[in-house]
Amino acid sequence: MQIDAVDQRIIALLVADARASYADIGQRVSLSAPAVKRRVDRLRSAGVIRGFTAVVDPAAVGWTTEAFVELFCAGRTTPAQIGVAARRHPEVVGAYTVSGEADALVHLRAADIAHLEAALERLRAESFVTSTRSTIVLSRLVESPGVGPSAG
């Protein structure tokens, strides 16, 4: 699918505010509301836009402790196995295969250090995990909900 500059702006605007109306977006990209809707529908059917969601502030729900955990896995552990295991843990907010020494990187969020420790112990108990290395986040400096060019 070809994505042009207008599609990229529409995507950026939706990432910035998924509740923006087609008319509001149309004003910003110089299209009518129906034209924006057609483009959004096309982007959704092509799988470029996979859905719309609410972004919740973790502090507002009390999950203020976070860590990045490098997973070191046994033998021929597949990315699919890591993904299935990661989804079993509600504290996991992201899991990625990575280059370097570790096999995967997992982003955890928890209510406090005790909760983080419990989540980490459950993650370490996965049958394929041989060891982990954790880094606790002290503060978030940059966080962006989207991809591509700025909606500005």
UniProtKB/TrEMBL annotation:
<keyword id="KW-0238">DNA-binding</keyword>
<dbReference type="InterPro" id="IPR036390">
    <property type="entry name" value="WH_DNA-bd_sf"/>
</dbReference>
<dbReference type="InterPro" id="IPR036388">
    <property type="entry name" value="WH-like_DNA-bd_sf"/>
</dbReference>
<dbReference type="InterPro" id="IPR019888">
    <property type="entry name" value="Tscrpt_reg_AsnC-like"/>
</dbReference>
<keyword id="KW-0804">Transcription</keyword>
<keyword id="KW-0805">Transcription regulation</keyword>
<dbReference type="Pfam" id="PF13404">
    <property type="entry name" value="HTH_AsnC-type"/>
</dbReference>
<dbReference type="InterPro" id="IPR019887">
    <property type="entry name" value="Tscrpt_reg_AsnC/Lrp_C"/>
</dbReference>
<feature type="domain" description="HTH asnC-type">
    <location>
        <begin position="3"/>
        <end position="64"/>
    </location>
</feature>
<dbReference type="InterPro" id="IPR000485">
    <property type="entry name" value="AsnC-type_HTH_dom"/>
</dbReference>
<dbReference type="Pfam" id="PF01037">
    <property type="entry name" value="AsnC_trans_reg"/>
</dbReference>
<protein>
    <submittedName>
        <fullName>Lrp/AsnC family transcriptional regulator</fullName>
    </submittedName>
</protein>
<dbReference type="InterPro" id="IPR011008">
    <property type="entry name" value="Dimeric_a/b-barrel"/>
</dbReference>
